[in-house]
Amino acid sequence: MELIKRPRRLRGSEVLRKMVRETRVDKASLIYPMFVKEGSGIIEEIPTMPGQYRYSVDTCGEILLKLQDRGVNNVMFFGIPDHKDEVGSGAYDPDGIVQKALRKARKDFPGMYLITDVCMCEYTSHGHCGVLCGEYVDNDRTLELLAKTALSHVEAGADMVAPSDMMDGRVLAIRKCLDEAGHVTTPIMSYAVKYASAFYGPFRDAAGSAPAFGDRKSYQMDFHNSREGIKEALMDVEEGADIIMVKPAMSYLDMVAKVKEAVKVPVAAYSVSGEYAMVKAGASLGYIEEDRIVAEMAASVYRAGCDIYLTYFAPEIARMIDEGRIG
């Protein structure tokens, strides 16, 4: 058979396959999400996320050291306070759990890049992402508190803030607040395209952030919609977002690709707790090979157009990069 074009020619060896690879996975683009809580001496495994832990400020250095040794230098802090109230005051308390973790990490790990999740849900007694008016989340009253939270994080040592609340106008409110305080160079990574997803279940267990009533569908996006996601992304860029995030990742790669085409800023994707838990559950039953699945999931996100990948598997991906199994 006379064939001129043979795509298999470029698949003949591992060296050649790596040479012509279209998608690259880089440790520098990985962000590891971690949970910090009040107390001391705490390294507490999360039942719904095997292999992930809640740390107190005095123990979080253990995981930061492991990450640093793997070459993962970017982390995002999520706080679990002891006290919750109607207005989530622990979120913007200068001595709040995230603020204390930031100061400790900044002192002990000056080379780490510290990012914080900016939201109210872990800190409110009702579990919603903003101030309530009856049972309705008051968008505009919440903006001031989100801005105060972001500012308190930056003053405590955060390199970047990442609002996840999905209130309209929160990027602009945070940008103005940071700029007025002199933090004009602090980037904002916006959870711009954040869907109301069943994939968040294990996270709500990990952070104790499940709403006490109702759901978050009045502010997080309907998973049936894609044009709405582009609108959200473009609005946040106009308000000053430096990075746009799509969340979740695995079932929303179409949105990663569409957002990548629509905006001229870096695009992040967050592989959330439910994605992690499903892989762990399948692997524990022997149904899948964990490393191979994790590598494939990561490559698919970058292939879709992702520049930054938030994942609980960040240290495992870094190890596989070192081993030449992904990259």
TrEMBL record:
One of its GO terms (molecular function) is porphobilinogen synthase activity. 5-aminolevulinate 2 binds at S273, Y312. Its cofactor is Zn(2+). Zn(2+) binds at C119, C121, C129. The active site is at K194, K247. Its EC number is 4.2.1.24. It comes from the Bacteria. Keywords: Heme biosynthesis, Lyase, Magnesium, Metal-binding, Porphyrin biosynthesis, Zinc. The keyword Transferase does not apply. PROSITE patterns: D_ALA_DEHYDRATASE. 5-aminolevulinate 1 binds at R204, R216. Pathway: Porphyrin-containing compound metabolism; protoporphyrin-IX biosynthesis; coproporphyrinogen-III from 5-aminolevulinate: step 1/4. GO terms for cellular component: cytosol. Pfam families: ALAD (PF00490). It catalyses: 2 5-aminolevulinate = porphobilinogen + 2 H2O + H(+). GO terms for biological process: heme biosynthetic process. Mg(2+) binds at E232. Signal peptide: none annotated. Catalyzes an early step in the biosynthesis of tetrapyrroles. Binds two molecules of 5-aminolevulinate per subunit, each at a distinct site, and catalyzes their condensation to form porphobilinogen. Homooctamer. Belongs to the ALAD family. This is Delta-aminolevulinic acid dehydratase.
